[in-house]
Design brief:
Distance between the termini of chain B: 34 Å
Order of helices and strands of chain B: HHHHEEHHHHHHHHH
Number of domains of chain A: 4
CATH superfamily of the largest domain in chain B: MetI-like
Radius of gyration of chain B: 24 Å
Largest sheet of chain B: 2 strands, antiparallel
Shape of chain A: globular
Helix content of chain A: 25-40%
CATH topology of the largest domain in chain A: Rossmann fold
Structural class of chain A: alpha/beta
Number of strands of chain A: 26
Oligomer: heterotrimer
CATH class of the largest domain in chain B: Mainly Alpha
Distance between the termini of chain A: 28 Å
Strand order of the largest sheet of chain A: 6-7-8-3-9-10-12-11
Number of helices of chain A: 23
Largest interface: A-B, 50 and 28 residues
Chains: A alpha/beta (700), B mainly alpha (308), C alpha+beta (215)
Structural class of chain B: mainly alpha
Largest sheet of chain A: 8 strands, mixed
CATH architecture of the largest domain in chain B: Orthogonal Bundle
Shape of chain B: globular
């Protein structure tokens, strides 16, 4: 029984809002001319890349902009009352009673020194004057409402004693105890694992329905938008360039920027061939460099005409409930778009694969971290040490010239696996062989010949480069250290490498702080490839980048790999990226590989139940795609004390498919079952039953 | 080379060192506190450098006809109990603090006693801090426990123990300042190291098989420089203070060399006798220089954190 | 069919210190006729309707022109609102008809919905009519039939059985005692995906019942 269409005025109406920040360069307009409505029981998604002003819009609604931010124009109307120009005191009252916020980092909203129960009940007892006992009951109810396991117990704990996903649920519960008319969520699931994210997104969907709350949902993830939002506003460089219903925007994007975004997001449902990513050229301009009196997107637009550089396009309505800020949106036909010359990575036919000797071969590799017990006994050396089984009995091989994708949630051991291979951790047991070298030694005991063949690309662009040295120096360092080229030729070689990562010579002398995230990542890639290694490990190399930059970096990595004939291990949590990128995929859970095989095989039945759950949790940037609804409950068990038998049995949604009803899962470690010679599944469920599974994603 | 990035708008090219210096100075001038501090420091550096030109007297020249005089045209700040010109003694005193370190009677090193003390402290402290923070394990335990033990002593007592055991001379004062300053610097560098060692570029260096020394001094140390410089600035202030204290207790530079601390100690006896000048000026000198250094350090740390 | 299913959650609300002028603007902007007045924590302190915003002329008669403007601009909601103890409210868990009875009894158009003194919603005549419309399937296509049947047990079952035997479903239904004749019962049903003739043919075969309206 919907109540959205009873002719109510919107809960929130924003008209031509403009927000500026004072900086040492003068006022910088972060957001301008933003207009949208949010109705009750409706989620309005604000989507865009970093630096486009999404969060500024969210904070601007309640004027939570900090000392140097201010709303300089427009109107923000909440339930009939104008918020612009209100005193902080009035806004604080509104924020407490009618508008709630949920941030990316739940700890920002939780007090670490107060129990969760006290924080929740306080919401009800302080202003609402509800008796403590009743407030407690209501709080527990609300925790149950957000699917918190063992909620009565959670009330007694402190925030740091529960997992990140649970913290976020507590924050949402706290926001809902206020029963707000408007809930502003700023990337609430970005820091969470994909299976946890899926649960939180389901929760948001339920809450919208049951509490009639209007939600403003800020995110960079087009997949998340497709899953939870009714209306979407696409932001670019501080402007809302396209607004419309989620169906209209995904099926028929009108603004060239939206079209570009859609082309650079990896899609899980499609096949590998069709999932080539097309980056948007150039990058988001900094607020002070934005074009004025022109279309902000014109410098990066494939369709830009003279008019676009001289006149600012208005937000024009294309169809009811869908408008775009583009002069030519009627004429542009996205389906006839062809990538500009050179944007598609030129991929030579792959060599290698079957039959060849594997480049790297791990057998029964175990890396445990020693966890000293904190008891008095351990002080005198008599305490029992326990081990965190970060990598447990991992066997795999990567053929030369191929890419292995390793996926799994945080804490599954995928990074430890990489560290073990590269020599930063020493395995406890098992064999690891690489080109005839033994890999079980730490890096300090390895031969220089081995060291130069193994390099790594890191996750965080801001810490991948030493801020004190120039780009040229840092790329040159491995060349000098490994004496790859004579010392007078280092500079030329560095410039050649810069060109290989599509950066020009002028970058040689730049310092890292003068580069954007994507450029830093490119330099990191150049540095890794400088010694011409045979194996490059990429630890989430694009997860910190915006989608359009991510696409460019991924394409670049692929191209370089082909050029140099490098083997890669690609660690990621994003299953769509891995599919696009990898030849083989290993799925890890609690230190173990649970499924291994060619990429195509992993994404189609038979699935290991954990793989199936992961795939069904991935948000797909297509509101019409059909995806199985499988949610994992509970949390990942501690690697200090992993469950007996199958590590996944505590959360497995498919235990009923095991012939004896799942008893064996607790007792015995599952066998490896070979679907093909290369595709193996770690599960007690017979392959015949696994083969009967439906594919997780079916596109229309 | 493909087209995808060629059309990308170029960010401004690498600024020349001159421009960067100008940028740095402009940051400095944003902070009034830093400017005031700098002015005070530069004043003392100036008078120390040009001391011989700024007074006709020598700091040790005695005049029995003009003892314990107040300020006058001949002696702008007055004279002390032996008729020495206080202005001359104060500015020559600044030389020892800021611009020269007398090693023997005939040989001196540039940079003053306080600065040498802090520099040596920085070297020792940074080395120990880097080792403790980066190598960790038992090295960290041993280094840190030793330094904790050192820090447990009251500062003045520690100075006195050191000088009393090695004798009073400019080089020994340097040694004392070094020993007293090392634990604090080591702790600071260690905490910075603990943070910086988690960065990916350190892992990249480890993966290249770089030696621990290379990683500590080439990869980590330069990135800790900001807080270290600010801390060093403050420590020069403490060192000047310490020199004053030692001089006052008779453990500073041997007489008759102009030492602010001993000047205060001598002059103190005559304050109640009606001639406070000889004690007042060196006190003001110590105080103003310490305050100047503190202001400057505060100003730059504030400005450099504000716009990160 | 409880109040909480039909009320408007998150009603537009105001503080007691809000000026009359602003409240009027707000009500116009948000298109509402009733404005619960709440203190911090959304605790109800009063109610303002469009009528209460009208100042009786007698109060203004004694003032001159300038005083009137002043008087008006100084007025706060707390001066004109119906105070909490006089506001008739309801609870979220009550059946809808019970709330309706309260509204009929007091001849009022809206009830703030409270939970422990905290406003969680508001229910108005419009909400009631929405419910009535939905009860009778007013906004779906289908054949609407009014059947008059004797007021005794088993009659309704006879009719529904007849329809379900055809494989049809009753989308919406409602019944009232026949006006002025309590021995009969008028029942309205809405059936989808049938033609009028098909439905009539089935209904006419039921004994003792009469189709009095079909559209």
């Amino acid at each position: 029984m919907s109540s959205t269409d009873r002719g109510h005025a919107p809960i929130l109406r924003v008209r031509s809002a403009a927000i500026s920040y004072e900086t040492r360069y003068g006022d910088v307009e972060a957001v301008r001319d933003v207009s949208f409505d949010v109705h009750r029981a409706e989620t309005f998604g604000v989507v865009g890349e970093s630096g486009c002003g999404k969060s500024t819009v969210a904070f601007g609604i309640v004027d939570f902009l900090g000392a140097n931010g201010k709303i300089v124009g427009g109107s923000i109307n909440f339930q009939g009352r104008e918020l612009v120009g209100r005193s902080q005191e009035e806004l604080r009252k509104l924020r407490g009673d009618q508008i709630s916020m949920v941030y990316q980092d739940p700890m920002q909203a939780l007090n670490p020194s107060v129990t969760i129960g006290d924080q929740l009940t306080e919401v009800l007892t302080v202003h609402r004057k509800i008796p403590a006992k009743e407030a407690r009951e209501k709080s527990i109810d609300m925790l149950n409402r957000v699917y918190m396991p063992d909620s009565a117990n959670v009330m007694k704990r402190y925030p740091h004693q529960i997992s990140g996903g649970q913290q976020q649920r507590v924050v949402i519960a706290m926001a809902l105890l206020n029963n707000p008319a408007l809930l502003i969520m700023d990337e609430p699931t970005t820091a969470l694992d994909v299976t946890v994210e899926a649960v939180v997104l389901d929760l948001i969907e339920d809450l919208k329905r049951d509490f009639d709350t209007a939600i403003v949902y800020i995110t960079h993830d087009l997949g998340v938008v497709a899953r939870v939002c009714n209306q979407v506003g696409v932001m670019y460089a501080g402007e809302m360039v396209e607004v419309g219903s989620v169906e209209a925007i995904y099926a028929n994007p009108q603004h060239p920027y939206t079209q570009g975004l859609m082309r650079c997001v990896p899609k899980l449902g499609s096949t590998k061939e069709s999932s080539i990513l097309y980056p948007i050229r150039g990058r988001v301009p900094a607020p002070k460099d934005r074009p004025k009196g022109a279309c902000v997107f014109a410098p990066r637009c494939d369709y830009a005409a003279d008019k676009c550089y001289n006149e600012k396009p208005p937000l024009s309505t294309i169809e009811p409930d869908h408008s775009a800020r583009c002069f030519y949106s009627e004429e542009i036909d996205a389906s006839s778009w062809t990538p500009p010359e050179g944007m598609v990575p030129k991929l030579a036919a792959r060599t290698g694969g079957n039959g060849e000797e594997p480049l790297i071969k791990l057998t029964g590799l175990k890396t445990y971290y020693k966890q000293e017990s904190k008891s008095l006994l351990s002080l005198i050396g008599a305490g029992k040490s326990r081990y965190v089984k970060a990598v447990d009995d991992v066997s795999l091989q990567i053929p030369a010239n191929q890419t292995l994708g390793v996926v799994g949630e945080s804490g599954c051991g995928k990074s430890t696996l990489a560290k073990t291979i590269i020599g930063l951790e020493t395995p406890l047991a098992g064999e690891a062989e690489f080109l005839g070298f033994d890999l079980t030694n730490p890096v300090s005991q390895r031969d220089v010949k081995l060291i130069e063949e193994l390099q790594m690309v890191f996750q965080n662009p801001d810490s991948t480069m030493n801020p004190s040295y120039s780009v040229g120096h840092q790329i040159g360092r491995p060349l000098r250290r490994f004496r790859k080229v004579p010392s007078d030729a280092v500079r030329d070689e560095v410039i050649r490498l810069l060109h290989a990562v599509r950066l020009d010579e002028s970058y040689y002398r730049r310092l890292p702080r003068q580069l954007s995230g994507g450029e830093k990542q490119r330099v990191g890639i150049a540095r890794a490839f400088a010694s011409r290694p045979d194996l490059v490990l990429c630890d989430e190399p694009v997860s910190a980048l915006d989608v359009s930059v991510q696409a460019a970096v991924l394409n670049l990595l692929m191209e370089i790999q082909h050029e140099y004939g490098t083997t890669m291990m690609f660690i990621a949590h994003d299953l769509s990226v891995v599919r696009f990128f990898s030849d083989y995929v290993a799925v890890m859970y609690l230190g173990r590989i649970v499924e291994f095989g060619p990429a195509e095989a992993i994404y189609a039945p038979p699935y290991q139940p954990y793989t199936e759950a992961l795939l069904s949790a991935v948000p797909i940037p297509d509101p019409t795609a059909k995806q199985k609804h499988i949610r994992l409950h509970g949390t990942v068990p501690s690697a200090l004390n992993p469950p007996s038998g199958c590590p996944f049995h505590t959360r497995c949604p498919r235990r009923d498919m095991v012939p004896d009803g799942g008893g064996i899962c607790e007792k015995e470690i599952p066998p490896w079952q070979y679907e093909t010679e290369e595709h193996r599944i770690f599960c007690h469920i017979p392959l015949e039953r696994l083969r009967e599974m439906e594919p997780v994603v079916t596109a229309d | 080379m493909t087209a995808s990035e060629q059309t990308m708008p170029k960010i401004s090219a690498q600024p020349s060192p001159l421009e960067r210096l100008r940028g740095g100075i402009s940051i400095l001038f944003e902070s009034k506190i830093a400017v005031i501090g700098l002015a005070i420091i530069l004043f003392w550096v100036f008078v120390a450098v040009f001391a011989p030109l700024l007074t006709p007297y020598s700091p040790t020249e005695q005049d029995y006809l003009a003892q314990n005089q107040g300020p006058s045209a001949a002696h702008p700040l007055g004279t002390d109990e032996l008729g020495r010109d206080v202005w001359a003694r104060v500015i020559y005193g600044a030389r020892v603090v800021l611009i020269m370190l007398p090693v023997t009677d005939s040989f001196w090193l540039p940079l003053g006693t306080a600065i040498w003390g802090v520099l040596l402290g920085l070297f020792a402290g940074a080395s120990l801090g880097l080792m403790g923070g980066y190598l960790g394990g038992w090295v960290d335990e041993v280094v840190m426990r030793l330094l904790d033990a050192l820090m447990a002593f009251p500062v003045v007592l520690l100075y006195m123990i050191i000088i009393a055991s090695v004798g009073a001379s400019a080089t020994n004062v340097v040694l004392a300042i070094d020993i007293v300053g090392t634990p604090g610097i080591a702790r600071l560098v260690r905490s910075l190291t603990l943070d910086i060692r988690t960065r990916d570029y350190i892992r990249a260096a480890e993966i290249r098989g770089e030696s621990p020394w290379y990683i500590m001094f080439v990869e980590i140390l330069p990135n800790a420089r900001g807080p270290i410089i600010v801390d060093a600035m403050l420590r020069v202030g403490y060192a000047i203070f310490a020199m004053g204290t030692l001089g006052f207790l008779g453990l500073g530079l041997p007489p008759p060399s102009p030492d602010w601390g001993s000047m205060v100690a001598k002059g103190r006896q005559y304050i109640l006798a009606g001639s406070p000048w000889a004690a007042l000026w060196p006190s003001i000198a110590i105080a103003s220089l310490v305050v100047g250094l503190n202001l400057f350090a505060d100003g730059i740390s504030e400005e450099s954190t504000r716009y990160q | 069919m409880l109040v909480k299913d039909y009320m408007t959650r998150h009603p537009v609300m105001a503080e007691p210190s809000m000026s009359l002028v602003e409240a009027q603007q707000m009500m116009a902007e948000a298109k509402v006729r009733h404005l619960p007045v709440v203190e911090t924590g959304k605790r109800l302190v009063g109610l303002v309707t469009r009528q209460t915003l009208r100042i009786p002329p007698t109060e203004l008669a004694s003032l001159n022109v300038w005083e009137i403007t002043r008087f008006l601009s100084d007025l706060k909601l707390e001066d004109v609102m119906v105070k909490h103890r006089d506001v008739i409210t309801t609870e979220a868990d009550l059946p809808l008809e019970q709330a309706a009875q309260v509204m009929i009894q007091h001849k009022i158009g809206a009830l703030p919905v409270l939970e422990k003194g905290i406003v969680v919603g508001i229910i108005t005549e419009i909400d009631m009519m929405t419910q009535l419309t939905e009860l009778l399937g007013g906004n779906v296509a289908g054949v609407r039939a009014t059947i008059r049947m004797p007021n005794r047990k088993g009659e309704l079952a006879k009719m529904t059985r007849a329809i379900s035997e055809q494989g049809w479903g009753i989308y919406a239904s409602g019944g009232v005692p026949t006006p002025k004749d309590p021995s009969y019962w008028d029942c309205v049903i809405k059936v989808r995906d049938v033609s009028k003739d098909e439905l009539l043919a089935v209904l006419e075969r039921i004994e003792d019942q009469e189709v009095i309206d079909l559209r």
